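Final report, Chapter 2: Outcomes

The project's central promise was a pipeline that accepts a single protein chain and returns its three-dimensional structure in a standardized token representation, suitable for archiving and comparison. That pipeline is now operational. To close this chapter, we reproduce one record exactly as it appears in the project archive, with the input sequence first and the structure output second.
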Amino acid sequence: MTHGSRSFPSASVVVPTFNRLSDLRRVVAAVTEQISVLDSRCELVIVNDGSTDGTGEWLEANASDLGIVLVQQANAGPARARNRGVAATGGEIVLFLGDDTVPADRWLLEHLEAHRMTGGAGGVAVLGYTAFPPVWDSPFLRWINEYGAQFGYALIDDPVNVPFNFFYTSNISLPRTVFEDLGGFREDFPAAAWEDIEFAYRAVGSKLRLVYVPRARTIHHHRIGVRSFGRRQQTSGLSAAIFSRLHPELEAFLGVGCVNRLNWRVRLERPFLAVWIGLGETIPGLVSDKEYRRLLDGYYLQGLGAGLDNPGTT
């Protein structure tokens, strides 16, 4: 593929989706526009993961006109959806994108330029930057995006050698051969939590290098509140129990040893912390990093403890 005087590897954008039709339409519009600017060797693959909101019907009606490679499956979760999406692709580079993360201008170009500069189909994954819409700006959203459990971009020290736990499938790309050689994502993770990091752990151990290119930007159209994010953290803890059984050498990293510290006091203070953090949405600087972590770590450890005690729940 060429753009001006530059030659890029071919690329496939893979988007799993479930019941987010209005967001998906924005994603499709942005990606197809960027593909049209570059070259026909780019393709968009949408995997409908058993949606019930009309997504499947809309995709079937529009896939041909929009140049979408469509895969339909019964609801099985994002890991299987992404694996099936890659199996349906032909690009040298696979780009994973969320169904609610809308690419900004030049997103596709920035990813492909980074791969071109690092050798095309070599052992490099490219992490882009994902932000919430500016009109939603709040202290809590800024914290989870830059320092917290959603993302943690401000914690990246070396953009050319990023740790495996920053492998976010809302906005990342890597050589298809690397993905296939490692067998893709494990499909025994029931939710969108840790299955991407578990893959990255195996990949980095196999010499994949992760680089950070913040110019490859997407906007995350997903409203998140303190309590809803707490529930997400419980789900993350359940999935972390699976991760720890697969890789017991990562128990300390996953916080397994901290589960016993989760006691009645942590749960008792939870509603008060939630109110305090809610107040901090109108008073910047009121809530400390420690307070954010105490609340969200409590939810996470609750889920992790339940997953460890009852493997059947995960």
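Archive annotation: DSSP finds eleven helices and ten strands in the chain.
This record, like all others produced under the grant, will remain available to the consortium after the project formally closes.
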